[in-house]
Amino acid sequence: MSSDVVELTNISKAYKHIYAVDHINMKIKKGDIYGFIGRNGAGKSTTLKMICGLVSPDSGQIKLFGEERNRMSARRIGSLIETAGLYPGMSAYDNMDIKATAMGLHDTQKIHELLKLVKLDSKSKKPVKKFSLGMKQRLGIAMALLGNPDLLILDEPINGLDPEGIREIREMIQYLNETKKMTIIISSHILGELSKIATRYGMIRDGKLIEEISKEELALKCMDYLSMKVDNIQKAVTLLETKLGMQHYQVHEQNELWIFDDIDSAQVNLILAQNDIAISSMFYQKQDLESYFLERIGGNDHVEYDKSRN
Ligand SMILES: Nc1ncnc2c1ncn2[C@@H]1O[C@H](COP(=O)(O)OP(=O)(O)OP(=O)(O)O)[C@@H](O)[C@H]1O
């Protein structure tokens, strides 16, 4: 059976002949925390709404849990997209109770458990209109969790939150993923925060999915390394292994060697020259997460990246 929780094939949606989502193919695997990254207006919400069934695609195919999207598979999704649709005059518990009743659930214990999970007091009579933004977001997440979803979709859940509020949401996402084995899609333009929790990323720009990449692949791409081109790659590798203890490296086409070990380039130069190996180029390659993302999603307007949090 497929391990894909979501599979989008050639999905498109246009408004007034302009593509909000332009023929995208996307796969989200069981257990992923899928960081969906793009600038404002890139098409994140529209894509997520199509997965949830809130917007119908113009074309393409949506598979959920290995089968064509249907009422049963859609019920396995919990989502918080845009606002949570809260009743401002009512308490957290009453808001949960109304949604639970609408879903045909009659489990007061579950409501207490979920409110505890999101660190809200289920006995409090405080109306939601007096909640902070972080409290409202946490309540929205608790409501999304009411049906015990296998897939949780959160659209910009940390937008506008302070660092403490962001940390609480992050810890909750990690708990649900690790303990409850929930697959989670989280869209954001706050790159540094996403990079702390995402296990895979999808980058969207002008409605097109530019790239999907795993955390491990990204880490490799963003590693610093010494790149060089030599005329005898086999001999160079043997020498650098034996003389300088080189262990972490990759050999690429056209006699190109990438060294990830912390090795002094002057030493490399000396040893290769002493052994008659010609070096045609040598430089340090450095690409940080921020530039990697920004190169793909475009520009840096509306995209936050706080390096101190990395
Ligand atoms: N109901 C709609 N009617 C008309 N245009 C729409 C509608 N929904 C989205 N769009 C347009 O589609 C494009 C993608 O919007 P979408 O909300 O999916 O982007 P986004 O990446 O989620 O950005 P944001 O973070 O600003 O919500 C935008 O140009 C937007 O104006």
UniProtKB/TrEMBL annotation:
Keywords: ATP-binding, Nucleotide-binding, Transport. SMART domains: AAA. Pfam families: ABC_tran. The keyword Nuclease does not apply. GO terms for molecular function: ATP binding. Residues 6-231 form the ABC transporter domain. Belongs to the ABC transporter superfamily. This is ATP-binding cassette domain-containing protein. It comes from Amedibacillus hominis.
